[in-house]
Design brief:
The complex is a heterodimer of chains A (481) and B (444). With 481 residues, chain A is of the alpha/beta class. In chain A, 23% of the residues lie in helices and 34% in strands. Chain A starts with a helix and ends in a 5-residue tail after the last helix. Chain B has a ten-stranded mixed β-sheet with strand order 2-1-5-7-9-11-13-15-17-19, with helices on one face. In chain B, strands 3-4-6-8-10-12-14-16-18 form a nine-stranded mixed β-sheet. In chain B, a hairpin with a 2-residue loop joins strand 1 and strand 2. Chain B is globular. The chains are: A alpha/beta (481), B alpha/beta (444). Strand 23 of chain A pairs antiparallel with strand 19 of chain B, so a sheet runs across the interface.
């Protein structure tokens, strides 16, 4: 191994700083999945009958499915009966104020750097914190409510805004969509609900932090965002989990509905525990995210920085139905050690004059496998659709893999669809150039990687961009080789 | 309906007859192919991985006849195809349905060190070469071909021989009944040799259903060079399932150019394989589809050796309700550092009903590589069209000129000038809606 290789190697083995566990009293349902379990979850959450019926239908459909194996992933068999489908930090009633929140829970989120505390109210971000199966605390709700914005856990939304939830739940991601969507629809525990009324521009970033804490559990949250006509919202999502030798399952659904001229910006910094160097432990992150740009001239933008998870399987998608609607997908996916990722997007052009842009940057190190998989589909009615896809892969070791699987299906002769992809390693020339100017190799690698990912990082909201950049550096510490 | 069953049943019931009529080298792998096909149980269908526009199951489902009894068909190398001077420029082999027919001037046109003969005859003379499987045994089309193949063409270019002129293999259908022709072409280019092979597919009768089940296998020895030009000009009632597989020893160069001008439903698979370092493989494709034609090209290239290069360029122009599909997979294994792999797919949709599906893939497990791919689907540049019209060129003519220009870079890669000119002419005729045949296809 030459000098630069060893520097690169030593630069990508950063420690996972969110791997601590919190000693929080938690009620955990015994492992196993059955109709009784689903009835228990529904009853525990005080849900109406229609929602229980929805769950049961999803469960019965899930029983008819087999786990998908088409992704470029080596997924060990998962025993779905060995997982607990409900875990709740023990607290009798929902907290009315921060004083009522278990101090250990608060401490957990403080250690994660999440501004739950009141004194951080001025940080300009409303936060919903979800630990295991339950939303712990949502901040700034009152301020948002003044403008008619609903930002609460989905359990509360079911109780307080049942008509809205019933109207939109499952309208973008049906429980029949795929194996994990069916599973989530059957057992989803909590998540966030956002409704932005007509003509309202959300005054602050909305943010949800997801934390798996209890062992032997999975996390099955569901997020539903509805942006009514002429509204705007920027929504951020962060995820962490403790370091455990066991694998934990995270199967979430995110549904977004964007009405006329509305815009939703959805940003994710995904940093679930990725397992150790030998690939022991880590979160299986199997997520279905989809937005429906239903209104004319609506816009949905997905930005994601994926650094965690032992296995990632997710394709945030846009169904561009409204005329002139716009879909964007910006992604940086980093895999190190034994991580595997099969991620990308789907852009389905249905309406006329719809546009989509895909920029995907993959960075692979260690023994990891990193795949981009994307679908661009233009249906016959989608006149003058435009898509541009750029998909780059950077290889930082000789033992990793970088793969590209685009699917381009054009059924309209007025469409213009372009796809470009490149795969390369950090060139010796670039490193030499930096060294020559006094920049040590490790810094140079960081510089080059950050430059490579900048196009995506620039799309993140300011607060996340700084965090994501740091995360990228930490993840790649000691791994460039 | 499971189309495979009828073929498996047919083989089981006629195994003795098929084997009795063929040399041992052609029989050697039949039972293994039967075992493989029995194991997979059915042919790929819509929705299976890699089969979006074409279903092999549907393609093989009709009740085609097979010439198991080795009935001899009329063969007239001069007149069978209405070709005025098909072999004037070089040696030409004729395959009528699935039987090799030597042309009268074949021997005279061949230089020393170049052999062109019937595959059945070669199986007796060079049994091990003929029996050597180059196409993957687990490929369903190759396995079906192995099950029923009884003849084809064998070409060998001896070490050091460099033969400029293309060896033309004219494969025609000539029956009044629906027929599935099982054809195999085996090409061996020995060390330091060079050759060009032109494969032409045509039916002689327009109103009969045909299925062309074809396997082309090429073996390139060290430092050799082979160019294959594959021209498909069939009728809308002709389907084709083709596998072109190759193995290349160190320092060899393979150039494959596939031209689809007319036909029905076509599925072409290209499976090159490198055995040594410094190999270069180029796979180019040009497709002009119209009517209800369906054209599916799939390239599966696995780089397993260091310091090799591969280039792919596919261009489709689709009119009417034609459907195109391109699926190119380049895999670079960990033991193939310093590989250079590039893949380009460009498509023109020239009518509202035309459809294109592209799936260019890179699977890379090695960091010391340069790999890229690009795919674009769109229509003619309206500015260019306007510019030409503003200078007095009628719209229809301007369109044809631009489409012709769009196709130029595939044709430009044909290095043998007479063939380049001839094929360019055929493409121009095709774009102007003329029936293109090899009639008068002089390469001089």
């Amino acid at each position: 191994m030459n000098n630069s290789e060893s520097t690169i190697k030593s630069a990508t083995s950063g420690e996972y700083k969110y791997g601590f566990t919190s000693d929080v009293d938690t009620d955990i349902l015994a492992a196993g999945l059955s109709e009784e379990v689903i009835r228990f979850i529904s009853e525990r959450k005080g849900e109406p009958q229609w929602l229980l019926d929805f769950r049961l239908e999803a469960y019965r459909y899930w029983l008819t499915l087999e786990m998908p194996r088409w992704a470029h992933l080596d997924i060990p068999d998962i025993d779905f009966q060995a997982i607990s489908y409900y875990a709740e930090p023990r607290k009798k009633e929902g907290p009315k104020s921060l004083d009522e929140v278990d101090p250990k829970v608060l401490d957990t989120f403080n250690r994660l750097g999440i501004p739950l505390e009141e004194q951080k109210q001025l940080s300009g971000m409303a936060v919903d914190a979800v630990m295991d199966s339950v939303s712990v605390k949502t901040t700034h709700r009152e301020a948002l409510a003044k403008q008619g914005i609903i930002f609460c856990s989905i359990s509360e939304a079911v109780r307080e805004h049942p008509d809205l939830v019933r109207r939109y739940l499952g309208s973008v991601v049906s429980y029949r969509d795929n194996f994990f969507a069916a599973l989530n629809s059957a057992v989803f525990s909590d998540g966030s609900f956002v409704y932005i009324p007509k003509g309202v521009r959300c005054p602050m970033e909305l943010s949800t932090y997801f934390r798996i804490n209890a062992s032997g559990t999975g996390q099955f949250e569901r997020t539903l965002i509805v942006a009514d006509d002429d509204s705007y919202v920027s929504y951020l999502e962060g995820c962490t989990a403790p370091m455990r030798d066991e694998n934990q399952l995270h199967a979430a659904i995110v549904e977004i509905v964007v009405e006329h001229r509305a815009e939703v910006k959805y940003s994710t910094v995904q940093n679930w525990y990725a397992g150790d160097e030998q690939g022991r432990g880590g979160v299986y992150n199997f997520v279905t995210k989809r937005g429906l740009c239903r209104g004319d001239y609506s816009k949905l933008s997905w930005t994601q920085v994926e650094t965690g998870s032992a296995i990632t399987w997710k394709y945030p998608s846009c169904v561009l139905k409204g005329e002139g609607s716009v879909g964007e997908f910006y992604s940086v996916a980093v895999t190190t050690n034994r991580q595997q990722a099969d991620t990308g997007t789907k852009m389905i052009h249905v309406g006329a004059n719809t546009r989509s842009t895909i920029v995907s940057k993959g960075i692979s190190a260690g023994h990891s496998e990193n795949a981009y998989r994307g679908l661009v589909k233009v249906v016959p009615a989608a006149q003058n659709a435009r898509n541009y896809t750029q998909c780059d892969s950077l290889l930082l070791s000789s033992t990793c893999g970088a793969h590209t699987f685009p699917y381009i299906d054009v059924q309209n002769d007025t469409a213009i669809v372009e796809h470009e992809a490149t795969t390369s390693k950090i060139s010796e020339d670039q490193l030499f150039y930096c060294n020559q100017r006094g920049i040590p190799t490790e810094e140079a690698v960081g510089l080059i990687v950050n430059g490579y990912a900048k196009e995506v990082m620039n799309k993140l909201p300011m607060e996340f961009a700084v965090e994501a950049q740091k995360l990228l550096q930490i993840t790649l510490e000691n791994s460039v080789g | 309906m499971n189309a495979l069953t009828q073929y498996l049943d047919l083989y089981r019931s006629h195994r003795d007859m098929i084997c009795a009529g063929s040399p041992e080298a052609l029989n050697r792998h039949r039972d293994a192919a039967l075992h493989m096909l029995t194991h997979i149980g059915r042919l790929p269908h819509f929705g299976d991985e890699g089969f979006v526009k074409v279903s092999l199951n549907d393609m093989f489902a009709p009740d085609y006849g097979l010439n198991l009894t080795r009935r001899r068909f009329d063969a007239d190398a001069e007149g069978a195809f209405g070709c005025e001077t098909p072999v004037a420029a070089g040696p030409s082999a004729l395959v009528v349905n699935d039987a090799f027919v030597p042309g009268p001037r074949m021997a005279a046109a061949l230089p020393e060190g170049v052999e062109v003969m019937s595959l059945a005859e070669a199986a007796r003379l060079y049994p091990d070469d003929v029996a050597r499987e180059i196409a993957p045994a687990d490929n369903p089309v190759a396995a079906l071909n192995t099950l029923f193949v009884q003849d084809g063409v064998f070409i060998r270019v001896r070490a050091g021989v460099k033969f400029d002129r293309p060896i033309q293999v004219l494969a025609i259908f000539n029956t009044s009944e629906p027929l599935m022709a099982v054809r195999r072409v085996k090409i061996f280019v020995e060390e330091g040799a060079a050759a060009r092979v032109l494969l032409c597919d045509h039916p002689r009768v327009n109103d009969v259903d045909y299925l062309n089940c074809r396997v082309v296998e090429a073996s390139l020895s060290r430092g050799s060079r082979l160019e294959i030009f594959d021209l498909e000009e069939a009728t809308p009632r002709t389907s084709r399932a083709s596998v072109t597989a190759s193995e290349q020893a160190e320092g060899s160069t393979l150039e494959l150019t596939n031209l689809y001008l007319h036909g029905g439903i076509t599925r072409n698979e290209f499976i090159p394989h490198h055995l040594g370092e410094h190999c270069t493989t180029t796979v180019n494709g040009l497709v002009i589809g119209s009517g209800k034609q369906v054209i599916d090209n799939a390239v599966r290239l696995v780089h397993t050796q260091p310091r090799c290069a591969s280039h792919q360029l596919f261009k489709y122009a689709l009119f009417d309700s034609a459907q195109g599909s391109f699926q190119g997979t380049v895999t670079i294994r960990p033991d193939a550092p310093f590989t250079e792999a590039h893949q380009t797919d460009r498509n023109l949709l020239a009518s509202p009903e035309a459809r294109m599906y592209a799936m260019p893939r890179l699977i890379i497990n090695c960091d010391e590589v340069k790999a890229s791919h690009g795919a674009a689907t769109g229509q003619l540049d309206s500015n260019a069209l306007f510019y030409m019209q503003s200078r007095g060129i009628p719209e229809a003519e301007a369109r044809m000129m631009l489409i012709n220009a769009f196709m130029t870079d595939v044709l430009a890669k044909i290095s043998y000038t007479p063939l380049h000119d001839r094929l360019t002419h055929l493409v121009e005729k095709r774009l102007h809606g003329c029936e293109t045949t090899c009639a008068g296809c002089s390469l001089d």
